[in-house]
Structures are given as C-alpha cells and as structure tokens.
Design brief:
Chain A: The glycine cleavage system is composed of four proteins: P, T, L and H. Chain A: Keywords: Aminotransferase, Methyltransferase, Transferase. Chain A: Residues 300-381 form the Aminomethyltransferase C-terminal domain. The complex is a heterodimer of chains A (384) and B (123). By secondary structure, chain A is an alpha+beta fold. In chain A, 20% of the residues lie in helices and 32% in strands. Chain A has three domains: 4-66 and 155-252, Probable tRNA modification gtpase trme, domain 1 (Gyrase A, domain 2), CATH 3.30.1360; 67-151, Aminomethyltransferase beta-barrel domains (Alpha-Beta Plaits, 2-Layer Sandwich), CATH 3.30.70; 296-375, Elongation Factor Tu (Ef-tu), domain 3, CATH 2.40.30. Chain A has helices spanning 4-10, 22-27, 47-56, 76-83, 131-140, 166-171, 219-233, 243-252, 288-293; strands at 2-3, 17-18, 31-35, 38-43, 58-62, 67-72, 96-102, 108-118, 121-126, 148-151, 156-162, 176-178, 190-195, 198-203, 212-218, 238-240, 301-306, 318-320, 330-337, 344-350, 360-365, 368-375. In chain A, 47% of the residues are buried. Chain B is an alpha+beta fold. The longest helix of chain B is centred in the first third of the chain and has 7 residues, at 29-35. The chains are: A alpha+beta (384), B alpha+beta (123). At the A-B interface, strand 1, helix 1, helix 3 and helix 8 of A face helix 1, strand 4, strand 6 and strand 7 of B.
Chain lengths: 384, 123
C-alpha cells in the first residue's frame, strides 16, 4: 500500500519547528504532520472521533503555529484601512473581523482575523504558512503611517476550544479569569483575562462551524493553560483534536483554507469573499483598483459540491460538465467524505456556467467520473 | 504499533499470511495508523486474476487515499465483505478482522521478514 500521506512524510523540512505544547501532544499520543515547517498534531487517536467530539461535546486544538502580528500607534486604524481589504478603523474595542491582505493585482496574500485590542492597537492573526509574506506586506505598507508593526508569533501561543460544551469548560478552568461574562460574549467578540499571573485574550471565534473560543496566551504560560483546560474539560467530553479533524470541520463549515481555496492569483469575488472587500470605504487601499475591476467574466468561481456514495473527490481532482467531456471545467480545492453528513463534500472552482445551485457536474475520481451536485455553502450549520 | 512476527510483509506496508497456496493480505498497523480513519475500501472482484505488484484496490481515509497492491500473482479467492461494510475494521484490527484479500497463487515472490519490515518502518 502506498499513500500520499506516506509520500508526504518522506519530505524533510529544512527547519522543523515545534509548538510550545509539543511535549503535551507527545504525552497524549499524538501523530504529527508537517504544517508550514511546524510539527503539529494531525490526530491523537482518531480523526473521526475528534471531529464528532467537536460537533457534540468539545475539542481542544493547538494552533500555536499561527502568526500573531501586532499593529500599534495613533494611526493603527487608518493604516489597516489602507493595508487591508476591510474597514478596521470601524470595529469596536475587542471586536474581531475577518479580513484579507490583497496584493496590487487584487489577489489574496493572506486571509486573516484582526482584533482591536486597545484604541490604538490591533492584533492580526495570519496563517502559519504566510507568516513572513503577511508580515512583509504589512511592514511595507506602514511607511506613511505612525504605526509600529511587530511580528510576535514566537511569543504567543494559541489554543482553541471548540464545540457546544466549550463555554462550560472555560468557566470551569482553574486559574482562568475572564474580564466579563462569557455567556454574554457574542461571536467575533473578545474579552481580556488572566491565567495564573499572565494575561490572555479570549475570543469567541473559530474554524469549525461550532460555538467556541480561541485563547491567545504568552508562550511561557501555554502548557499550563492547555493542561488546565483539559482538566476542566474531562467531565465535559473534551478531547484533544488534531489538524485532520480541523480540516474536515472547516470544510463542512464551508470555510476557505489558504493554499487550497485562496491564493495570490485568486480574487476575493471568485472565492465568495466579495463582501470582505470594502469598496465603500473612502480609502485607496492596496488592491482597490483591481478589486473594482474584478475578475473576468470567465473566471472560475468557488462552489460547494455534494455527491452520493463514499468515494470523495479530493484536492486537485478535475471537474467536468458531463460524463464524457474531454476538457475540464473546474478543479476541486478541498474534498472529503463528510464525517457529519456521511457523504462526500468538496469545494471546487468551476466555470461560471456551472456555478448555479443544483447544477450536476462530474468529478474524475482516479479515472471514474462521479456525479456531484452544486450545493450551497456551508454544508453544515449548527443548530442555535 | 507492534507488527506480527509470524507474518511476511511488503514494502507497500501490506502483510501476507501464507497457508498452502493461499495468501491472506491486509495492511499493517503502521500503514493504518499513517492513513488515519479508513472510511472506504474498494476491493477486486472474486475470481479476477491479479498480477503481483499491481494496484488492485483502494483504501481511503478522511485525509488520503492509499492504493492496495497485489503482493502475489494469482486469482482472488475471497475478499472481506465485513471490511467493505465497516472500513473502520482496518484501523481497529488490521491484522485480524481488517484483512482484505485472499489470493490463490502458484509461486510466492520474495517478501520481507518481520525483522526486515520492522527495520523498514524504523521500529
């Protein structure tokens, strides 16, 4: 038997990086995968069990590989309005906003979450694989502004607790004090707090389609916070969850992953992220001109695909308009057998003529054309 | 994960148990662990002729797709219907209930010993 997983494991990254929680993962029996040079848990026991735990009780993820970039200074809001696609000067204190770093051509350098931590300070969360590209783009755009842009990725760890029991777990965590009421905290809002002697930022954000929290903590306190959360979660069905389950969870939730759905040659409008580009703001932000022009009428657009059976189309598999078409009209960017829904799901870029909901297309699954139906995203939406 | 000392192995992470002219084939615990949760198994038709070293089936996990190779040339005598119904058997009992194929063969090619396979996977 050979597999792409095995082949992947043969590639030796030049610099291996380890999370500050690495020893906890080893102790918990994790298997590891390379993610942008980081050795991160891919699963602890079973990706399916971890996936289902997040949907039904809770899972805890180490996301310390993600990048934290701090923007501080009197011009912070105006600077971000210029550097990013969104209007960050308009967000409230302790509000979070999903945004994009565009290039001049309107392509996506990274997709990010931005928190306003004080009046004149923002925290930008970039993808691990884009840490340096994101930082370089942000630093280069700061010249005309009274701001300081600092890459704090090596100092900050990130732990996510996701799932319906996540609030109860945080409330039961020894040593964790929140400056406010978690039950009143809205989605994409954050609160400050402390864990033992250190400060934490607790945000109601996530990448799973469930209720949940992300906790930013200084590296020296991370392992103790992880242990405290796990101890509190023991009676709430909390399990450590790896990147394999994180990927199927975000796919079901219809959330894009940079490098799959997003790239420097992707326009936000193609990815269904047109709403993230704020053309109403009176700022000549980077990428504005190209965004106003938009992609060509023939540019492929991101759709959801659902099919019957168990054989899933996967990233890079081609999409055809018929069972015998010789030229592909699309390509899958992420795909899996949905653990929650029990049938294959995928996100794919297809020709605009195939993008209408209900359109039947065919996915070439290793030589067999399997019918699939264009389906609304997300595939899964939690009951509130 | 410990592999079984009485079995023979292939470099494609399959185990082979020889009984007379029949080889029972599965994937090793190491391979199952690397794949992650197996969610779909496609096996060849009983009675079909297979050539050693060729792809005869697929094993899909949530994360990836593995190809199943015929370790010997011969005829498929039996396939494991239980594992098609319940692919998770490949993870829970790779050397037992998670077996995949039985192949009737005339000649057995050289296979890896337990020691050789253990060395291959670094255990």
């Amino acid at each position: 038997m050979t597999s792409d997983t095995a082949a992947h494991n043969d590639s030796t990254p030049t610099v291996e990086r380890f999370s500050p929680l690495h020893q906890a993962h080893v102790d918990a029996g994790a298997g590891f995968t390379d993610f942008a040079g980081w050795q991160m848990p891919v699963r602890y026991s079973s990706d399916l069990a971890e996936h289902h735990a997040v949907r039904t009780s809770a899972g805890i993820f180490d996301l310390s590989h993600m990048a934290e970039i701090v923007v501080t200074g009197p011009d912070a809001g105006a600077y971000l309005d210029y550097a990013l696609a969104g209007k960050l000067s308009a967000i409230d204190l302790l509000q979070a906003k999903y945004s994009l770093i565009l290039n001049r051509a309107g392509g996506i350098i990274d997709d990010i979450v931005v928190y306003r931590t004080t009046e004149n300070e923002y925290l930008v969360i970039a993808n691990a694989g884009n840490r340096f590209q994101a930082f370089e783009a942000l630093a280069a755009r700061a010249a005309r502004f009274d701001v300081t842009v600092t890459d704090r990725s090596d100092d900050v760890a990130l732990i996510a607790v996701q799932g319906p029991n996540s609030r109860a777990i945080l409330e039961a965590t020894a040593g964790l004090t929140v400056d406010g009421d978690l039950s009143a905290l809205k989605y994409y809002r954050a609160l400050g707090g402390t864990f033992q002697a250190g400060t934490v930022l607790i945000a109601r954000t996530g990448y799973t389609g469930e209720d949940g929290f992300e906790l930013y903590v200084d590296v020296p306190d991370a392992a103790a916070l992880w242990d405290a959360l796990r101890a509190a979660g023991a009676s709430f069905g909390l399990v450590p969850a790896g990147l394999a389950s994180r990927d199927t969870l975000r796919l079901e939730a219809g959330m894009p992953l940079y490098g799959h759905e997003l790239s420097t040659s992707t326009y936000p409008a193609q990815a269904g992220l047109g709403r993230v580009v704020n053309l109403a703001k009176e700022v000549d932000f980077v990428g504005r001109e190209a965004s106003e022009e938009g992609p060509s009428a023939e540019a492929r657009v991101l759709v959801g695909l659902a099919s019957a059976g168990k054989r899933a189309g996967r990233a890079d598999y081609l999409v055809y308009r018929s069972a015998d078409a010789t030229v592909a009209d699309g390509v899958i960017t992420s795909g899996a057998l949905s653990p929650t829904l029990g049938h294959p799901i995928a996100m794919a870029y297809v020709a605009p003529g195939l993008a209408r909901l209900g359109t039947e297309v065919f996915v070439d699954v290793r030589g067999t054309r399997i019918p699939a139906t264009v389906t609304a995203l997300p595939f899964y939406k939690r009951q509130k | 994960m410990a592999e079984h000392s009485e079995l023979q192995y292939t470099a494609e992470h399959e185990w082979v148990q020889v009984d007379g002219d029949t080889a029972t084939v599965g994937i090793t615990a190491y391979a199952a662990d690397k794949l992650g949760d197996v969610v779909f198994v496609e096996l060849p038709a009983v009675g079909s002729d297979v050539a050693g070293g060729t792809v005869v089936g697929e094993i899909e996990s949530t994360k990836s797709v593995g190809e199943l190779f015929a370790p010997v040339t011969g005829t498929i005598a039996e396939t494991n219907d239980a594992v098609v119904e319940s692919p998770e058997l490949v993870n829970s009992d790779p050397f037992g209930a998670g077996w995949l194929l039985k192949v009737t063969f005339t000649e057995l090619p050289p296979l890896l010993s337990y020691a050789e396979y253990s060395a291959l996977i670094g255990e």
